[in-house]
Hints:
single chain, mainly alpha, globular
Amino acid sequence: MNLVRRALFTLGLPVVLVALWWLSSAGSTDFFWPPLETIVRAFPETWTADPILNDVLPSLARLAAGYLIAVVAGVAAGTAIGSSRTLRALCEPVLEFFRAIPPPVLIPVIALFAGYTASTTKVVTIALGCLWPILLNTVEGVRSVDEVLRDTARSYRFGRLATLRHVVLRGASPRIVTGARQALSLGVILMVISELFGANRGLGAAIVQFQRSFAIPQMWTGIILLGIIGVALSGLFRLVEHRTMAWYRGVRQAEREG
């Protein structure tokens, strides 16, 4: 019964919104607002094997590369900065400066060195945009680790690596996961934006090409596909989070019961 109720809560609103879109657009003669039925019929004709292999998969590969770079760099730098008051005081002005710069603004600068059509430009753009949520949340997570736990680790003569792994990173992991979740949503946006500048292949470039050629139903299929990808990535992230953070949910439940 709980599973059925959860499914209804999960699928109820999307089904209602799709039904409203279908009914409100039925019989539409607006060129830019075609009936949803027309868009659905155009979907299998538009996204065949060739565009999936040459547009969708390369975009996802660049997203994965940029995101993973941001996770590794953000956690490593955030752990170092959060563990040292001196380093934190030294880096804070620089971090605030670069955090205030929107990553899309840096695309022309990055392109000067890597070229507009190079995959490196897109990967670096995604990595820079995803870096800050992970980095800043890691810093705050490391700073908030209980000092009693650190003292306990020292009293048990934990080495630096053991303390880092079992105390610092484990204690900061809820904040790190929060930053990684925020970065994933931002990465999908940057994946599309980075392909709007000089790219001839990619999901974002395909949507723009459809728009410029006035293939409006095909343009809408690209937007819908992008949303489906976002939902799938969010579901995958939740699955990984559910497994890796099971210990944290157990601790919180024990605290509530106690």
